[in-house]
Structure formats: C-alpha cells, structure tokens
Amino acid sequence: MALDRFSLNQATVKYASLETAVRVTVDAGIPSIGLWREPVAEFGLEASARAVRDAGLRVSSLCRGGFFTHVEGPDRRAAMDDNRRAIEEAATLGAPTLVLVVGGLPHGSRDLVGARSRVADALAELAPSARAGGVSLAIEALHPMYAADRAVVSSLSQALDLAQQFDARDVQVVVDTFHIWWEPDLAAQVARAGRGGRIASYQVCDWVTPIAPDALLSRGYPGDGHIDFAAFTRLVVEAGYAGDIEMEIFRQEVWDDDPTVVARHAAATYEEHVAPYL
Amino acid sequence: MALDRFSLNQATVKYASLETAVRVTVDAGIPSIGLWREPVAEFGLEASARAVRDAGLRVSSLCRGGFFTHVEGPDRRAAMDDNRRAIEEAATLGAPTLVLVVGGLPHGSRDLVGARSRVADALAELAPSARAGGVSLAIEALHPMYAADRAVVSSLSQALDLAQQFDARDVQVVVDTFHIWWEPDLAAQVARAGRGGRIASYQVCDWVTPIAPDALLSRGYPGDGHIDFAAFTRLVVEAGYAGDIEMEIFRQEVWDDDPTVVARHAAATYEEHVAPYL
After folding, report:
1. A31: which of A21, A48, A171, B273 is 20 to 30 A away, CA to CA?
2. Looking at beta carbons, which residues of chain B come within 8 Å of A154?
3. Best to test chain B binding among A179, A183, A219, A226 (most B CBs inside 10 Å)
4. Any idea where the domains of chain B sit in the sequence?
C-alpha cells in the first residue's frame, strides 16, 4: 500500500538494461517505472513495451523530449521530428506523458529571451501531435544552474506561464523537488499547477550539498539533503495530484551501486519521507 | 571616461592585501573599489579608510553583512551584533551600502520558509542602525544553487519583496548579473527595483559553463560566459541606476593571477562589455 503510487525512474539505475531495470523495480515491490528513450531504443521499442506490460508495471512517464531552442533551420527541424518520434514512443509504451527538457542557449548565443520564446513556438508546433498520440507534453523546469546549457525554463512559475498558453490535456508541467525547492512562491505555484490540472508528474529527489563537482550529478535520496519532503508533498497533495510519484536520481555513487540495492533503497526512502504525507 | 563608473570589488583580487588592492585599482585607472571586511580588518579599519581616501578612490560598497537566518538565541544575537559592527565599518569607510548575504538554512534545518521569514525580522532589527549610520542595507539575491548553504534569498523578485517592507533609504538590493541572469521576469524586476529607488549596486561577472567543481568559484570576466551584458546593462540604465558598477569574480584562476593583471583585465572587459551600453 505504501508503495502504490511509487515509480522508479530508470535514470536512477542508469547502467542497468531495460530488462534489469524492470526486474529490480518489480522485485522491490514498486508498481510503476519511468522510462528513458535511450535504454528503450537499445532494448527495442516494442520489446520494451511488452517487457513492462508483462511485468505488470505502469509506465509513469517517458524521458525525454525537448532540446528545441534552436533558431529555425535544419537543427530545429531535426529536433521537432525527434520530438514527434518521442511522442509516438510514449504512446507505444503506454506512458501518459513525455517529459521535456527544453534545451539551453544555442551554441554561442546569449539571447535567453529569444531561446525562451522559441520554446513556446515548439510547444505550439508539437501540441497537435501530442493530442493525436494521447500523450501530454510535460515541461520540466530545471534548476536555474542549468539555464545556460540544459533548460531555459528555470522555475515552475515560468513553466506554468508557458503551459497555460495551451490546452491542459496537451501541455502540462513536472513538479520536481530538486529543481524547484528554492522557488520563493513555491506553495502558490504548486497550487496554481494543481488548479489548472497541469501536474503531469511529481518527481522526488533531494538537494545535497556541497554541489557535486559535476553539477548534473548533485542529487540524493530523499532525506540525504535539505528538502522538506513532508511540506513539499503536502503541497502537491493539496493541489490535487493523484498520480505516480517518481524518484529520479543522477548521482555517480547511486549509479555505481547494485541496481537491486538502489531500487530497494529508493523504495525505503520513499516510504519514509514521502508516503506518510500522501 | 569609460571607466568613470567602474569599481573593482576586492574579492576579485582575493589574495592581495588592502594596500595592494588599492594600488592595482589606481594603477588600472579605476576610480572606485568595493571592500571586504576581512582584508579591511587585517589592514586596520582606520588605516583602510585613510588608504582609500588618500588614493582618491570611492568606496562603492562593503561586503558583507548577513548570515542571520538562525532561530533566536546566542548565535542570532552574535550575528546581529556583528551586522551592527559591519554597518559602522561601512560608515567609517565611506561606503554607501553594506551588502548582505543573508545566510542559508540553519544547520540541520529544512525549514526554508522559516529561514526566509527570519531574514525579514533581521532587516527590521537592523534598519534603524543602518539609518543612523547613513548606510543602506543591500540584500543580495544569490543564485538558487546557494539557497541551502549561503543565501535563502534566491531571486531579485524575492529580494524586492523583502526590501519593500522598509524605507528605500534603509533597505535596497544588489543587482548581480551572475546570480539573477536566469530570472524569467528579469526586465520587469530590474525596472521595479529602479522605480522603487532600490538599486544599491550593479555587479557584473559572467556565468561560465561548465560549473566549476567548487560551485562557489564558477564566475568569469564579462565576455567569458553566457550573459548578455549589453541587454542586462540597458535594463539597469533604463531603471535609472547611476551609481558605481562593481566587478566581483570568484574564480581560482583569477585569484591565482597577478593582481595588477587582473585589475587591468577587469577594466578592459568592463570597457568592452559594459561601458558601451551606459
């Protein structure tokens, strides 16, 4: 019962094959999994869909689309085509949502305002494909420390400003503790996301200090860092979110660990720091 | 003429004594300096005030007060006393403003909302001392990546929400490119800061990727990173700010360099990337 909404994001066991990721998830008593395109492609799209279905797992999300901040041209066209493929993959896998990491500044550009406006353009172009595929696009605000090189959407507030330009069935947001825990008006923004029916996913992992030498890998299990998961989870509950809750940890020590151990520890920290507040 | 508003923040030549910092600043043709309490204390407060005065330099700011997020008790009382001393030091040095780095979460605490409310309490307690000393308190929003361990004020918007609870003579804000360049509504917030007469200081340094292994030291000279200094500086000009513009760079390679070279290179990058937009 305590794990009934828990989902293990595949990136938490990054070096495991899809087959292994599915096995350790099931073995840990976790009913749902968040998939990534690369290991899915490696195992085969249809084979992956079958593997998770045969294992009785839900697919909570597919990571990831996005990276569409380029100015118009061949690179942008390639990105849009790739995003359409990602939507189809999500549909095939039974994932209700495709997580979008929107991309940073194009190489050599300092035009942050322009890059952000091209995110809105890309969403407008992709929304019909999402609707056709029965998949929502979930804008993930990344921590502002990734604004230059990963995602020019830097807060939940900004993600919602973007999402609200579209139908709530098509464009939603990810609420990820690691990326937005610092946001000064967090409570108001989570409530706003809930009111609009915009929360596609609640993702949990902790903010650990000092920041890792590779800042991308500076995450931890809930309880290992500074985030108040009780308070955060209550906000998400009060906002009406009733879907799966993913744990997605990028951290070298976690990746180097045995995936069976990682899945069990992820489940244990979820049961301790998140589940009691649902 | 091009350097007439430029100020070298002493932290940019961190390993130089106050005497050396003053000398390299003057030698580079820079008319103003931002001082730090530690090297000032080392050289002596009165001696430092005399040294900058004799050199004909303005003092654009004193860094730093703050670190007052503790719950009530001896640590908080010590912090408040220390901040009152810092205000007096700023007055003695002829610095118009004391820069505040407000502090992170108290050790072991995950109560971000509480820590933020105690910042407001501390400002209320210190504002009369600031008024008496003829010094403004300048809240510096630090990049959200420092929210846990350095400063729970994470955006210009939040800094202004705090400042506006007080008289604009007493509590102002720092506009620092490195910390807030990612802010989605930057233009509106800079304009708001200007309208309220709240800009105590404009500080320039660049956001360089990848983030340095020690994330505190991930800054660069203007032009070395991703920030559009033309656009940013225009916002500050349009907001009516007419004071000194400091360059403050925390970066190991810069600190390891000859301070004479650093001061000249700082002036050159200011002349290239900032001065033309004033």
Report:
1. A171
2. 182-184
3. A226
4. 6-277
